[in-house]
Amino acid sequence: MPRTPDYFNGKTIVITGAASGIGRATALIFAREGANVVCADVNEDGVKDTAEKVNEIGSQSLALSIDVTSRAAVNNMIELTLNGFGRVDFLFNSAGAAIRRSKFLEIDDELIEKTFDLNFKGTFYAMQAVLPHMLKNKAGVIVNVASMAVKRGGPNTSVHYAAAKGAVNSMTLGVAREFAKDGIRCLSISPGPINTAFAKAAASSPELIKRFLEDIPMGRFGEPEEIGELVLFMCSDACKFMTADTVYVNGGGGWR
Ligand code: NAI
What is the CATH number of domain 12-248? Predict the structure, then answer.
């Protein structure tokens, strides 16, 4: 929660992956706080739906159908935001996926490239697009999404994904430190299993769900809103000394 009650009123957040899951939940939480929400996603219908829900809550929105793996599209996303709202205060990079599961020796060039394009380069492009503007304002917060997989390495199924998310955390650290004196903060969140389409794809059988749950002392998956509230806290003025680190949100588990 912000220290200043109306802190988010009229401020603008750009959210990638806003059509679904964590991105959508975060969009609605920022709408609740009165922020303008730019909803960006490759899923056109989903992103329009999120933007409508933002409006229903009473905040302004912009729905952008973009693929974060295209630098031009990501640059355009920031330009359209500036045309629409005049400034960008926060960027939340939630677009991401494991693409598909694979044993390490079966990860081919196409899978590793697609995984890094989406999870790493998409985040990299968005940060490069927004930072010049944040530098001009001498203010801004960027929140990226990694995964508990960075602690486990994704053996047997997703080393490609864990490595891409590890790169996201390293980049977050570097950007935070490079721009710390410019009024810009950069953080990441490394979630354990969260109830979204992503987790449903990973926990695809009752046995797999049981294995996931046995590993979480709280005995449940997280909810996307629980990540969204953390994004809100990170972007707020409640703890402005916080930058560079990742925060693990996992019900105490996910270390198997
Ligand atoms: P989700 O599948 O509900 O949402 C991901 C969104 O990203 C979708 O709306 C999808 O259309 C969008 N997207 C995919 N490729 C895109 C592209 N090229 N350009 C623009 N948008 C694109 O999944 P969820 O759970 O909300 O995932 C959000 C983030 O959280 C991802 O980065 C994921 O890797 C990460 N994560 C999720 C966990 C979970 O258990 N749900 C655990 C750890 C990390």
Answer: 3.40.50.720
